[in-house]
């Protein structure tokens, strides 16, 4: 039995590539992970639960494969026995992987409600071999040299990388619209390569013939390394910073659904809104990011391609260094500058469900965006993970359950206790399982400074430190104190127009007044400023006709409802105040007065023509007084009628003297009538002299008829 005697055996020990499993499994989903949040998504640090987070040191390491499964408890007792008794699952493309992720001194600062900044240092190393034929792994460590051996390896890929990072992350809130909240982040980092070895084999096969002790190989093999390895292919100083440099970037978005957003907004004493930065406000959170965009260039190394088509003695392969075996036993086909290192670009997404204030359920996916067959390329493993967790300010407990590419089901546990964090994404499944193919572990120490949670004991929306009555709910207008009710009338002083005097709500907290002192309160008084009667809702009824004065056209004279409180003395359907003849019935068309008919007109003139005057004078003779009385009676029956009193003479004498005499007699009759109570405005005296005879002046009888007085209605 002997070891490492064939080329593929050496591949097992020294060939490497990169296959990165998720670092700090379970811890990165914690809302209190602080600066660690930038590892999976730089947007995580915006609206952080920490004011300041200083990471002192954190280490996360992973080893896994799809070839060998061992009993973890056996490994704790005897590491070599555990592997001797392990189960193997050889395939044509097995892999073995290891990585370590060290987060060095780093700091995150929450600038304000919208912005956060982080400065970080990080060291990362990866070891992996991909697409190895499992039969080769079975033979590694020795085989029976008396038996022939044949292996078709085909293609194999690998790279070992070690680098350091220093970078900055900036994140800010992009949208904060009630229940919708969106933030974004970007990390930029300088990457310093500190060591690299990579291999690529094409159409590789190995055949051993025991009879001749000869090994026949075929194919082509590429070997590259930085100058951290010496010219003989031996490992040199990995940390001499000659492995090239480059720049990388991470970018991410986080969306939060906050249906109870108002619950997390409080007020200061001035009523300005304050967000509770110490509380998680979402019911559901979704995030997506792309990490490790970039490459390391100018690696200052050499890539050599060897021709493996050769048959030679097995003893030529003794030794521990792959480069020695290649250089000493195979022909060099080409030599060139080593390839740039492609970073393990990956897509990460997760959904976080807030079951209640402290319990969460997270579904996460890590998906590689770089192929494992690319030369000198790092690559993450596909991993899908479900993590229930308990989360509070000083304590976080989580137990991730995941399916890891090649390694299968993983079950882990982790804890964050103030400044200390430690855990594993696979510790439970490793301890309980009998066929463990992957194990990871992380631990670290930091100094977290948490955001203060806004406290509001009385739930009135005003934070305790600015609430004048923190234990009793009250409005912002009263600085958080309840409004008083000084007069105990059930109306708060702020709404009470009479805070020191009890009164009903209908009167804004004031007692009802009785302004006019009539015993009827103003609220029930239709005439609050004029004293009245209760039966008339506080309004007066001066004439006692049952109609209040404000609606009574004749408030001082009793009347009827249909006449709006006015009387109709003569019953002619025209109330007295509108009736020019209130005591004498008459038609409405004549303003309630009787109309002068032709018969009445004739009667007036019949009387008027009998009025006698002294000869040549205007003096009415005493025997005509009775006639005048009759005329007055007729005129009084038509009180709104107006008349002309006309004087006429015969032609005896001069016309001038006749004119004067007619005017004098007309005025004499008018004066008599007005002196007896006929309104002067109803009578107009006119003299016509001898101009309007009604008979001939040639006879005595005719002249007598012409000497007359007429009283005619003015129409």
UniProtKB/TrEMBL annotation:
Stretches for region Disordered? 463-485
Keyword Chloroplast attributed:
no
Locations listed in the record: Cell outer membrane
Protein name from the UniProt record: DUF5723 family protein
Q: Which UniProt keywords apply?
A: Cell outer membrane, Membrane, Signal
Q: Which residues form the OmpA-like domain?
A: 600-715
Pfam family name, one: TSP_3
PROSITE patterns attached to this UniProt entry: OMPA_2
């Amino acid at each position: 039995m002997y070891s490492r005697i064939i080329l593929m055996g050496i591949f097992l020990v020294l060939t490497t590539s990169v296959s990165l499993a998720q670092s700090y499994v379970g811890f990165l989903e914690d809302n209190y992970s602080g600066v660690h949040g930038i590892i999976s998504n730089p947007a995580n640090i915006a609206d952080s639960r920490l004011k300041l987070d200083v990471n002192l040191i954190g280490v996360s390491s992973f080893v896994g494969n799809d070839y060998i499964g061992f009993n973890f408890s056996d490994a704790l007792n005897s590491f070599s026995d555990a592997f001797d008794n392990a189960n193997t699952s050889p395939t044509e493309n097995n892999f073995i992987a290891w990585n370590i992720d060290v987060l060095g001194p780093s700091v995150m600062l929450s600038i304000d409600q919208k912005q956060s900044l982080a400065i970080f240092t990080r060291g990362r190393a990866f070891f992996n071999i991909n697409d190895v034929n499992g039969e080769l792994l079975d033979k590694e460590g020795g085989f029976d040299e008396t038996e022939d051996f044949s292996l078709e390896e085909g293609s194999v890929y690998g790279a070992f990388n070690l680098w350091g990072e220093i970078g900055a992350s900036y994140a800010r809130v992009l949208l904060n619209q009630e229940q919708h909240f969106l933030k974004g982040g970007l990390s930029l980092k300088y990457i310093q390569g500190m060591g690299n070895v990579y291999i690529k084999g094409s159409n590789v096969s190995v055949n051993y013939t025991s009879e001749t002790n000869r090994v026949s190989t075929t194919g082509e093999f590429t070997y590259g390394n930085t100058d951290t390895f010496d010219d003989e292919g031996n490992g040199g100083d990995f940390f001499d910073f000659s492995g090239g440099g480059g720049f990388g970037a991470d970018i991410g978005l986080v969306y939060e659904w906050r249906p109870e957003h108002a619950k997390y907004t409080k007020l200061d004493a001035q009523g300005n809104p304050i967000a509770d930065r110490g509380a998680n406000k979402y019911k559901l959170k979704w995030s997506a990011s792309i990490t490790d965009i970039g490459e390391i260039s100018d690696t200052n190394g050499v890539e050599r391609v060897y021709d493996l088509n050769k048959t030679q003695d097995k003893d030529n392969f003794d030794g521990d260094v792959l480069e020695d075996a290649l250089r000493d036993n195979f022909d060099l086909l080409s030599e060139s500058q080593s390839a740039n290192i492609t970073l393990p670009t990956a897509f990460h997404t997760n959904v976080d469900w807030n079951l209640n204030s402290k319990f969460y359920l997270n579904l996460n996916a890590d998906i590689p965006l770089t192929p494992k067959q690319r030369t000198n390329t790092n690559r993450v493993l596909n991993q899908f993970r479900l993590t229930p967790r308990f989360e509070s300010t000083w304590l976080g407990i989580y137990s991730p359950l995941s399916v890891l590419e090649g390694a299968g089901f993983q079950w882990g546990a982790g804890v964050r206790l103030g400044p200390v964090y430690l855990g594993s994404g696979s510790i439970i499944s490793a301890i309980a399982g009998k066929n463990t193919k992957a194990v990871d572990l992380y631990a670290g120490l930091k100094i977290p400074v948490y955001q203060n949670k806004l406290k509001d004991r009385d739930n009135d929306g005003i934070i305790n430190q600015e609430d004048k009555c923190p234990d009793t709910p009250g409005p912002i207008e009263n600085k958080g104190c309840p409004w008083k009710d000084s007069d105990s009338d059930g109306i708060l002083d702020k709404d009470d127009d009479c805070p020191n005097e009890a009164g009903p709500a209908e009167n804004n907290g004031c007692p009802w007044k009785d302004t006019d002192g009539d015993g009827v309160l103003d609220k029930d008084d239709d005439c609050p400023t004029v004293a009245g009667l209760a039966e008339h809702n506080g309004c007066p009824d001066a004439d006692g006709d049952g109609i209040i004065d404000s609606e009574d056209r004749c408030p001082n004279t009793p009347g009827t409802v249909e006449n709006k409180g006015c009387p109709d003395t003569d019953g002619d359907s025209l109330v007295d105040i509108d009736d020019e003849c209130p005591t004498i019935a008459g038609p409405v068309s004549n303003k309630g007065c009787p109309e002068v008919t032709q018969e009445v007109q004739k009667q007036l003139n019949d009387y008027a023509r009998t009025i006698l005057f002294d000869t040549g004078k205007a003096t009415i003779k005493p025997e005509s007084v009775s006639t005048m009385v009759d005329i007055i009676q007729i005129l009084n029956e038509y009180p709104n009628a107006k008349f002309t009193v006309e004087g006429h003479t015969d032609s005896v004498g001069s016309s001038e003297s006749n004119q004067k005499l007619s005017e004098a007699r007309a005025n004499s009759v008018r004066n008599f009538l007005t002196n007896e109570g006929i309104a002067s405005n109803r009578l107009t005296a006119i003299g016509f002299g001898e101009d309007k005879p009604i008979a001939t002046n040639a006879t005595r009888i005719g002249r007598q008829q012409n000497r007359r007085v007429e009283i005619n209605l003015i129409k």
